[in-house]
Write a structure and sequence with these properties.
Elements: E1 8-11, H1 16-26, E2 32-35, H2 52-67, E3 71-80, H3 101-111, E4 121-132, E5 136-149, E6 165-167, H4 179-185, H5 187-203
Parallel strand pairs: 1-2, 1-3
Antiparallel strand pairs: 3-4, 4-5, 5-6
Helix pairs in contact: 1-5, 4-5
Length: 206
Amino acid sequence: MLSEKYLKLLIGTHNVGKAIEISHVLEDLKLTFLTLRDIKVTQPVPESGRTYEENAILKAEGYARQSGLLTLADDSGLEVDALNGAPGVFSARYSGPAASDRDRIDLLLAQLERNPRSKRTARFVSVVALASPDAGVIKTEYGTCEGTIIDSPRGTNGFGYDPIFVPEGFNVTFAELPSTTKDVISHRGRALHAIKQFMIQLITQT
C-alpha cells in the first residue's frame, strides 16, 4: 500500500531530456511524475554549489519547499582529464548561460583539437538527491561512467555532451545508444537505480 504522502514525485529540472531519463528509470514505481513546468516556481533555485552534491541538494530541497512535494533533483557534469576535470560542475554553463548544446560541444572539441584519442579520456558524473518538504534532503546517490571524447558529434538520441562521449566498452556514443541501454550504464542511470531501492521502501510505508 502506497503512503499518500509519496504518490507524487516532482522532478526538479527544466531540462526535458533529463526529466525523461529520470521518469523512465523510475516509471515502475507507479508514481505521478511532475516537472517544474507543472508547478508554479516562484523562485528558481540557483546552482551555486561547488560540487555536484551541493547543487543537487540545493535544487531538491528548494523545489520541495516551494511545491510541498517529494522532489528528486540531479546535478551532473562531464570531466575531461586533459582539461583538468573541466567542464565539471560548470558543464551546462561552459559556453555561457545562453549557449546551446552544440555551442558547448564545439567549445570542448576546439579545446581538445590537438589531443589524440588516447588523451581524451573523460567521465560523466551524477549526484541525485531526494528531498521532502518537511525533512529536507533524505537521500543522495552518486554515479559515474568512464569513456572517451571523440572528434565530432554522432547520434541524435540524447542531449548535452552525449553525441561526443563514447562509454567504456562500447564503440558508439551515448546519443547512438538505445535509451534502455543508456539508462542502465550511464552516470545518471546508475545513481537513479541506487536511489530507486531507497524509494521503494519509502513509498510503501503504511
